Amino acid sequence: MTVRNGQGQQGVGRLRPGGSAVPLSEAYDTALLDLDGVVYAGGEAVPHAVEALGVARAGGMHLAYVTNNALRTPDAVAEHLTELGVPAEAADVITSAQAVARLIADDVPPGSRVLVIGGEGLRVALRERGLVPVDSAEDEPVAVVQGYGGPEMPWGRFAEASYAVARGLPWYASNTDLTIPGARGIGPGNGAAVEVVRIATGGRVEPRVAGKPLPPMHRETVLRTGARRPLVVGDRLDTDIEGAFNGGVDSLLVFTGVTDAAQLLRAVPEHRPTYVAADLRGLLVGQPEVVAEEDGSFVCGGWRASVNAPSGGELVLEGPAEAAAGAAADPMDAVRALCGAAWSAADAVGGGVPDAGKVLARLGL
């Protein structure tokens, strides 16, 4: 389906990526951008991010930065973005710390003490909601909250959370991302820390989680941005893309973070993005339509993808014809066509996920 007015196919599991006749920065009024793995990684800007966001902003698109990382305050994030060449104000930044602080404030009286296992971003968000951060289970907290505390988080902080949860205190988590991208690779995220406390307390209690892909984060984002035609931009299927699916809004997946093409082709319906691009330059262009042919194949940009058996089997990729004549071919078009073939096969009655190993090796992905 081609998007012409910023209103795409929303809230349903799609069988192929969408198309847009105009640049995405014109089709949508607001980009809700994840940060880690999308705008920066390990503190450094992702290639092409600064330039692409500058062009999108100059064209009138509002840029908001929505992150599950609760470590830093919106002021600190905005300052970092500005240093990287992406001008931002604190009001442009929405964090899972803010979402979980609102969730807790809805449940406990003003002025309540909350045991904090995390960084300054979480403490500031709690104070913003009239709550009092404390450091010990002996400080008479009425709840305990976990947020990403960075790679130097002392092990004793997890023990403190375990003591509080074992005593029956309500348990909250800013997010449950198991990993987080950094300059040296993929490291453990807040979800891994939550698992530590879960194991220590016998797995009998589950935390209330605020971050993507769950509704509290979407609620926080809508309240703070006022977006009318938002586009979620992220690198994670299980947070960014699922969060967009749950919120009934369109999404753009970029391959600059944790998700690779093989994972995208295996995506379950709620993890399938509206659009796919190599990086944030995808905001500045239209998106080619993926056409479903009568023979069951899918075509995009001259590439044709199909499955060699109706239920499961192996993905087959042909073309494009112009590439044989020496013209450059966009591998993203091949990925888009492959998504159509793989997702349709997986959703067919009795279908399975086709093997993508050979075609992705051919593309170097």
From TrEMBL:
Family matches, as InterPro entries: GNAT-like (IPR041065), HAD-like_sf (IPR036412), HAD-SF_hydro_IIA (IPR006357), HAD_sf (IPR023214)
Gene3D superfamilies (alphabetical): HAD superfamily/HAD-like
Residue ranges of domain GCN5-related N-acetyltransferase-like in the record: 300-365
SUPFAM superfamilies per UniProt: HAD-like
Pfam families: GNAT_like, Hydrolase_6, Hydrolase_like
TM stretches of this protein: none
Superkingdom of the organism of origin: Bacteria
Stretches of the chain forming a coiled coil according to its record: none
Protein name per Swiss-Prot or TrEMBL: HAD hydrolase-like protein
Organism of derivation: Streptomyces flavochromogenes
